[in-house]
Amino acid sequence: MSSNVSIVAINTFREAVRDRVLYNLIFFALLMMGAAILVGQISLGIERLVIINLGLSAISLFGLVMAIFIGVGLVYKEMDRRTLYSVLAKPIRRAEFLVGKFGGLLLTLAVNTLLMTFGLAGALLYVNRHFMASDGGILIAIYFILLEFALVTALALFFSCFSSPMLSTVFTLGIYIAGMFAQDIRNVGVMTKSPALTAITRVIYFLLPNFHNFNAIAAAGHGDPIPLALVGWNTLYAILYVAIVLTAAATIFAGRNLK
Amino acid sequence: MATPAIEILGLTKDYALGHWRPGKRRSLDNLSLEVQDGEVFGFLGPNGAGKTTTLKLLMSLIFPTAGTARIRGRSIQDVRMHREIGYLPEQPYFYDYLTARELLDYFAQFFGYSKAERRERVGRFLELVGMTQAANVQLRKFSKGMLQRVGIAQAILHDPKVVFLDEPMSGLDPIGRREVRDIILGLKSQGKTVFFSTHILSDAEMLCDRVGVLVGGKLQGVGAPGEIVSLEVKGMEILTDLPVGKTLPMPLAANATATGQRYRIQVPEAELYTAFDQLRACGAKILTVTPLRPTLEDYFLKLVENEKAASHAVEVTVP
Amino acid sequence: MMRGKQARRAVLAVVAIAVLFLAITPLQKRIDSQTRTVEKEKEELLLTSGPVLKKLSLGYSALLADIYWTRAVQYYGGWVGDRSAKFQLLWPLLDLTTTLDPQLIVAYRFGSIFLSEPQPIGAGQPERAVELVKRGIQGNPDEWRLGTDLGFLYFWHFHDYDDAAEAYLEASKNPKAPEWVRIMAARMADRGDALVTSKLVWAQIYQTTSNKEIKKQAVQHLEGLKALDDERHLDALVEQFKQKFGRAPSSLAELRDKGYLGGIPLDPAGFPYRIGPDGKTELDPKSTVSTELVPPNAITPPPPSTHE
């Protein structure tokens, strides 16, 4: 049963790799690394900081773009083009297919991130000639970014099950931004005196994916230690939230009449 | 009696007319039929009759409004049942960036074959559908006919007991159609059950043990092709080539159509040999002699006429 | 045959495009020279609210901080040396930078000097400098150097010895802080010789910064302080001369001839001092040393403290 998931996942990965969009994105990402070195040079004493900030921001941004761009078409395109017909006639459950798609895209993002991490490491070595102990924070920041990707991919996949790529992009972006502002939404509720609003915003806060949990770019740049406990909690949060979204997606997909 | 390969009981599918409009469109109305093991069953009907809807329901790509179906005794809701069936969708479309070989290998993986087994099977079935040369070409470069062949290959490479083909001849040239006919006959000789939909009646006549005719979502008749239409022979048709300069003698010419020197002449059966003498006298070369029977096509057209009349009647009565 | 024709057409197209770009280049330069005059006048920051910008940056605030810091540095570089410089945008830029990344120490240290220095060297806003450095200390309590910057500001620009002493004392509590910080705190508390203290303060700034601009500024001030010190001594000698001879000396050469000086003393830049028309020693007008930017109270003894 789980082998069906990995079969679909590897095929999804292979399809993404063959789609040339990926290469353009990687090219731009590596370009950013080069730019980071340049910008660091004109930044008066904070080369390392700039390289880390620019590099991590590039990894985060490109990955998000890819997660959304590819994710919103993952299921929709198959339904629209009917490539799905032959697959679902095989002994595979719809839910397995869905999770496989998720896994494949996440794998693609992970490989991509790995490549960009090498680029970042290269840029750092070029400037510093050696790694420092505090560079470990960078790896944690990248891990958090991957957790973010998992959440966004799941959301994009969810919308892909029932709405067109354009709408899905809007929805997914909307939730991402709302998730970034989750704390502010909650604060607004706290500051108003209305108990109803406070309660509502509190519920919204817990419903939304709280992406601010995963932002460790500044900490990595300044070499601040990131508590291991946070790594554990964030991992758990990501797993739970992804499970919620995928379950919802699988439920919708399972009952869907294909055109 | 053994479990039928395919049992369909009261299968019905309604579609909403639109997101906001009330009312439904019934695309399949209470379909019930059985197909036995080893039968080749042709599912006939004009476009829009509900043939593809039926197949999609059986594959659980869409879900019935009412009714059930079982394949080899298992409910269509049981995904394990898919191990034993193969499906060729109408107008198949596959992953652009895979090659034919990679696609078949991908599908084969779902059946748990070892790598060696997969390689052997994929190679064998690529050869069967004539795609060995194009095995390593990306599917996005394939013509419709080539995709159709790959589609057939993916439907049968895991040795399913029941094979469902939606318009298997579509997009193929005459050679391709003959190859598909041979494949279907090959499947039959292996004892498999074949259920295919088509609107090409001559194929159905030639291949099927039984046919079912679907018009307007309703099953109009089920039976052997010969049972559906009467066996009355209406006459004979002679195909003949006349030498240059000669023309056809009179009684024959009245019932003939010509393309260049080639004539199609219809004669009553009793007058067949008289016609032969006349043609021999002209020096004509007789190519074929075929009995004229009302074909499925005639039956078909009549059914469609009746259905149209019925629905018109309905439209008139509703205010 | 087809290939040859297509290849030739492709080459022609490439050449045509290259030529067109060559034509665009001088045109762009022409446009640039027009807009550059326009741009320098319009000093504008579209967004000045740090917290808003931080929210809008959607998690990329660290990177944005770096961008604003770079912009601040370039802004400073664009105006440095210009006699009409006012550096009005320096505070908003540094404000944004440090709101986006409260841990960007270089920004606080840069601001402590160049926000407080009078125009045209800096923005002439020592209160803003204090505000910035205090924010820095709050966000980075472990960064003792910011505490010394605060102490410097209180001493140099506000002549507030008590607050200066407190700032240095807080900084000295950090085990990583070197000995001189504690000594400086004591100096402030004791209100020792202002000139010596000033020299110490700028010497420390010079040593603890890696920023070239700040080092340059420190050297300027140290030279100016030395010059003031020298002038003070020379003025004392002039007084002695007056006492003895009943008139002002005509020049420092006379002082030398009368045995008060071994030779004509040179300022830190190597230019000779001289006696000005008001009878006070002054710098050679060609000298690169400047005493203008030293606040007057930096060298006069402090008033006796009224609180203890």
Give your account of this protein's structure.
The complex is a heterotrimer of chains A (259), B (319) and C (308). Chain A is mainly α and 259 residues long. Chain A has one domain (2-254). Helix content of chain A is 81%, strand content 0%. Chain A is built from twelve helices and no strands. Chain B folds into two domains: 6-228, P-loop containing nucleotide triphosphate hydrolases (Rossmann fold); 235-292, 2-Layer Sandwich (Dna Ligase, domain 1), CATH 3.30.1490. In chain B, 34% of the residues lie in helices and 28% in strands. The radius of gyration of chain B is 24 Å and the shape is globular. Chain C is mainly alpha-helical and 308 residues long. Chain C has twelve helices and two strands. Chains A and B meet through α1 and α5 of A and β6, α2 and α4 of B.
Name a few traits of the molecule.
A: about 260 residues, mainly alpha, 12 helices, about 0% strand, C: about 300 residues, Serine Threonine Protein Phosphatase 5, Tetratricopeptide repeat
Q: What is the helix fraction of residues of chain B, given as a range?
A: 25-40%
CATH superfamily of the largest domain in chain C: Tetratricopeptide repeat domain
Determine the mean pLDDT of chain B. Answer: 86
User: Based on DSSP secondary structure assignment, what is the total number of beta strands of chain C?
Assistant: 2
What fold name stands as the CATH topology of the largest domain in chain B?
Answer: Rossmann fold
How is the largest sheet of chain B built, in terms of strand order? 6-7-8-3-9-10
CA-atom Rg of chain C in angstroms:
27 Å
Question: What gross morphology of chain B would you assign?
Answer: globular
SSE blueprint:
The complex is a heterotrimer of chains A (259), B (319) and C (308).
Chain A: H1 2-18, H2 21-41, H3 47-74, H4 76-81, H5 83-88, H6 94-128, H7 136-160, H8 165-180, H9 182-191, H10 195-207, H11 217-222, H12 228-254
Helix pairs in contact in A: 1-6, 2-3, 2-6, 3-6, 3-7, 3-8, 6-7, 6-12, 7-8, 7-12, 9-10
Chain B: E1 6-16, E2 24-35, E3 40-44, H1 51-58, E4 66-71, E5 74-75, E6 85-88, H2 100-109, H3 115-128, H4 144-156, E7 162-166, H5 174-189, E8 193-198, H6 201-207, E9 210-215, E10 218-223, H7 225-228, E11 235-241, H8 250-254, E12 256-259, E13 262-267, H9 272-282, E14 285-292, H10 296-317
Parallel strand pairs in B: 3-8, 3-9, 6-7, 7-8
Antiparallel strand pairs in B: 1-2, 1-4, 4-5, 9-10, 11-13, 11-14, 12-13
Chain C: H1 2-41, H2 50-56, H3 61-79, H4 90-100, H5 105-114, H6 126-139, H7 144-158, H8 161-172, H9 179-190, H10 194-208, H11 212-245, H12 252-257, E1 274-275, E2 281-282
Antiparallel strand pairs in C: 1-2
Helix pairs in contact in C: 2-4, 3-4, 4-5, 4-6, 5-6, 5-7, 6-7, 7-8, 7-10, 8-9, 10-11
